[in-house]
Structure formats: C-alpha cells, structure tokens
Give the backbone structure.
Amino acid sequence: MALRNIRTIGDSVLNKRAREVEVVDDKIHVLVEDMLDTMYEENGVGLAAPQVGILKRIVVIDCSPEGDDPIILINPEIIETRDEQTGYEGCLSVPGKTGIVTRPNYVKVRAMDLDMNEFEIEGEELLARAFCHEIDHLDGHLYVEHVEGQLMDVDALEEQ
Ligand code: NI
C-alpha cells in the first residue's frame, strides 16, 4: 500500500487540464493502486489523478455503501446528463470545507478500463455527482467554482 500526497486548493496543478492516457503501462497500474489506497485512507468517494499531482485523465470512484468494486475511469467523457440535484459537496483538495452545488441527477460516462477497452457507465444521485466532480478535476476545475452561496466549514455545519 502506498499513499500519495493530496494537492490542495492553491496548488496550480489543480487548475491545469490533464492529458489523455495513451498507453496503460506499469506506472499507470501503480498510480491507480496508489490513488485507490489514498482515497480509502482519506475516506473520500472519488479521486482524480491531478489531485495527487499527475496530469493524466484518470479517475477512481467508490461511493457504494455495499463495498462494490471501485470504478476506474481512463479518459472519461460525460456523454449524457438528465435532471438536477442540489446538495452538499466536498473535496479532499479543499479540506474541511463544503458547499451546495447543483449537478445533473443522471450522468452517463464513456471511458476506458485498465485494458484500454471502452465502456459506458451510468450513475444517479451521489454517483452522478461524483462523475461530474471528478471529471471537472481533469479539466482543472474545483467544485468551489460552482458553489451556491458561501463555502462553509464542515465543523460549523455539523454543529447546527
Ligand atoms: Ni475533488
């Protein structure tokens, strides 16, 4: 198990567009394993490669309470969205903060797996939110750009 340092807001790597993965080599396999370890260690539901300082279009997501296999997306693209949801969002790169963001309630993504086979995956509610949030990271965007009202301290929210 290897953990990577999570880059936080203000680090310019988070504002850059990540590049497409051309070949899944051993380095990419190690990166994906480390991203999963880091996401679970930090109790996150998703992590994008730029958050560990690597400008490649790779995302890992696990927001299932049932402990299903994590979702690994190489070069993901959103190809369909539907409806809306409004709720709290947070990010490991913006520690201790949360804010309200409106996202589509249904999202379909086309991506490649670690064997470079193309597949499509659909998500609703939290998973749809995670797809949007993580793919935004690949284009250099953080959820704080979409927050409605104020960015809040998680602690202050929990005290209410
Ligand atoms: Ni994030």
Helices lie at 26-41, 126-138, 154-159.
